[in-house]
Amino acid sequence: MRTTTSTSSARPTKSCTASASRSWRRRARRERLFYAQFVTASSHFPFKVPEDRRRLKVPDALEGTQLGDYLIAANYTDYAIGQLIEGLKREGLWDRTTLAVYGDHYGLQPDDNDPQWVGSVLGIQYDSRISRMNIPFIVHTPGQPTGKRVEQVGGQLDMLPTIANLLGKKPRDAGVVAFGHDLLNIDRNVVGSRYYLPTGSFF
């Protein structure tokens, strides 16, 4: 199995995702199995999506705020991921693909957004430490009949054993030691979050 990485600009477009799906189709013709990674920065700070790419109109009170920019960027990223999926379907790859979508850290900057204001605007209970760590991890596997929402705390260490389980594989059978947990088969978990200090800190 070979590896390829595609890196988008901060402004991924329909053509960018279409190019990725075409490239992967060519890889699929040459190789039965391959691993590809697609990195996008659209929903990364400072969350500035060009006017001609915006697909969400936020209320006037949110225009120019970090929260408003974040919502626009997240919406655009959803759209771009959707275009990638449609491209995989057009190229005949969707039913042969395991697709994992994940974020690697929080979005809103805690020092710039009052938690009470964010909560009132979004109509949710928002905690500056806990809510912003609610980071997506979405997996599609071939033959998956329906989706399932798993309310379980997890981290990047848990991705390998979780995806392996969905594929019917056991890492230990391949001599792999997986330090995380299969998120589909645990009822509690402990996640260490390294913070931005030279020696690291955990909470």
Helix count, DSSP H or I runs of 4 or more residues: 4
Share in β-strands: 5-15%
Which class best fits the helix and strand makeup?
A: alpha+beta
Beta strands, count: 4
Strand order of the largest sheet: 1-2
| Helix proportion range | 25-40%
Order of helices and strands: EHEHEHEH
Please give a structural write-up.
It is a single chain. The chain is an alpha+beta fold and 203 residues long. Helices cover 29% and strands 10% of the residues. The protein has a two-stranded parallel sheet. Strands 3-4 form a two-stranded antiparallel ribbon. α1 (14-30) links the parallel β1 (2-7) and β2 (34-39). α1 (14-30) runs parallel beside α2. The radius of gyration is 19 Å and the shape is globular.
What's the SSE blueprint?
Blueprint: E1 2-7, H1 14-30, E2 34-39, H2 66-90, E3 99-102, H3 115-122, E4 137-140, H4 159-166
Parallel strand pairs: 1-2
Antiparallel strand pairs: 3-4
Helix pairs in contact: 1-2
Give a quick set of tags describing it.
globular; alpha+beta; 4 strands; 203 residues; two-stranded parallel sheet
In short:
The protein has 203 residues and is an alpha+beta fold. Helices cover 29% and strands 10% of the residues.
